[in-house]
Design brief:
- The chain is built from 18 helices and no strands.
- It has a single domain, classed as Proton glutamate symport protein.
- The chain has 356 residues and is mainly alpha-helical.
- The radius of gyration is 20 Å and the shape is globular.
Length: 356
């Protein structure tokens, strides 16, 4: 049954590049009043880079501390699946896997800005968004099999090697939730404290949106509700709209923590160590690849595939291990991403509303 995980990962790999490209094009192509909101965009982008870097470093730090990937070497070769089933993908798919993520993203941004300033803006944005929704719909059909894939992987591992083999998986899952909890209350909480906003009161103010994110494992689906909620508590509409829409792809705090932890987990699984220079390179790679993610369930795992392929030192087969708990980690990502969207809007608007 271990081949099922390999087949599943191989099936979703071809969708990574188009999802990332279409998401970024739609994002920049659909921005309203681009010239008048330039300052908001610049301020938001600076914040996104800083907070994303902090989230990545936080995830790497927690994983390095608790070492969730340390596992009995005798079990390693059997628990991990064999070589992934490969095929010759078209060049537009291989762009991502050949360390050309920067080129892909820059091309998407430029195309989005061109569309934004053209007279065909609405039609072009609608077209690219339609393509994005189509690709994501195909992905959702594939992800229908995710529970079966996860169950088969765990059943095979436990059935053959016992419950001890679940330790690294459970430790990774628990570590991810702990890391995101600490990130929200220590990092985001400190940021809000500087704005004289209580993190607990802020979370209480958006509790309904967080419950919806938990139920759907998606922060994207909560964006419309979150925008209305943030406007109700006193934030300016233009700031809320720009920051949350951009943040849906560029400000995914939970995803960044997850990516940082997952890379270190996989490295520990294969006994791979990194120098400080290599860790810095990994942070930069994740910083780039994470910008192609969205808050839709499953895209965090898609970006992890891109990240692992870009790093090149980590065997891609290890991804099947993380797949078994991705559904549970997706919920943690969604909640943290949603809180991160709200905090970003507060920072950019520099609100000091005492009613929150």
């Amino acid at each position: 049954m271990q081949w099922i995980g390999s087949l599943f990962v191989s099936a979703i790999e071809p969708f990574v590049a188009p999802v990332i490209f279409l998401t970024v094009v739609t994002l920049f192509g659909g921005l309203e009043n681009l010239k008048s909101i330039g300052q908001i965009i610049i301020k938001a982008l600076i914040y996104f880079v800083l907070i994303s870097t902090s989230a990545i470093l936080f995830g790497i730090g927690i994983a390095s501390l608790i070492q969730p990937g340390k596992i009995n070497k005798a079990l390693l070769s059997e628990i991990l699946p064999g070589q992934l089933i490969t095929s010759q993908y078209p060049h537009w798919v291989n762009v991502v896997f050949q360390n050309s993520m920067l080129i892909l993203l820059l091309t998407a941004v430029v195309l989005g800005l061109i569309i934004n300033q053209s007279r065909f803006k609405k039609k072009a944005t609608y077209f690219f968004d339609l393509l994005r929704k189509f690709v994501m719909k195909l992905l959702r059909y594939i992800f229908v099999f995710a529970p079966f894939v996860a169950f088969s992987g765990i059943a095979y591992t436990v059935g053959r090697y016992g419950t001890d083999s679940l330790l690294p998986i459970g430790k990774m899952l628990a570590g991810t939730y702990i890391a995101m909890f600490l990130f929200v209350f220590l990092v985001l909480g400190s940021i809000l404290l500087m704005l004289k906003v209580n993190i607990v009161k802020f979370i209480a103010a958006i509790k309904n949106e967080l419950l919806y994110a938990l139920g759907t494992s998606s922060s994207s689906s909560v964006i419309p509700l979150l925008m209305d909620r943030l406007e109700l508590i006193g934030l300016k509409r233009d700031v809320v709209r720009v920051v949350t829409v951009m943040g849906n792809s560029l400000n995914l705090n939970g995803t960044c923590v997850y990516l940082g932890m997952s890379v270190i987990f996989l490295a520990q699984l294969y006994n791979i160590s990194f120098s400080w220079a290599e860790l810095l390179n990994i942070v930069m790679i994740i910083l780039l690849t994470s910008k192609g993610a969205t808050g839709i369930p499953g895209t965090g795992f898609l970006v992890l595939i891109t990240t692992v392929n870009s790093i090149q030192r980590i065997p891609v087969e290890g991804l099947a291990v993380l797949l078994s708990i991705d559904r549970f980690m997706s919920e943690a990502r969604a909640i943290t991403n949603t809180i991160g969207h709200g905090v970003a809007a507060l920072v950019v608007s520099n609100t000091k509303d005492k009613n929150i």
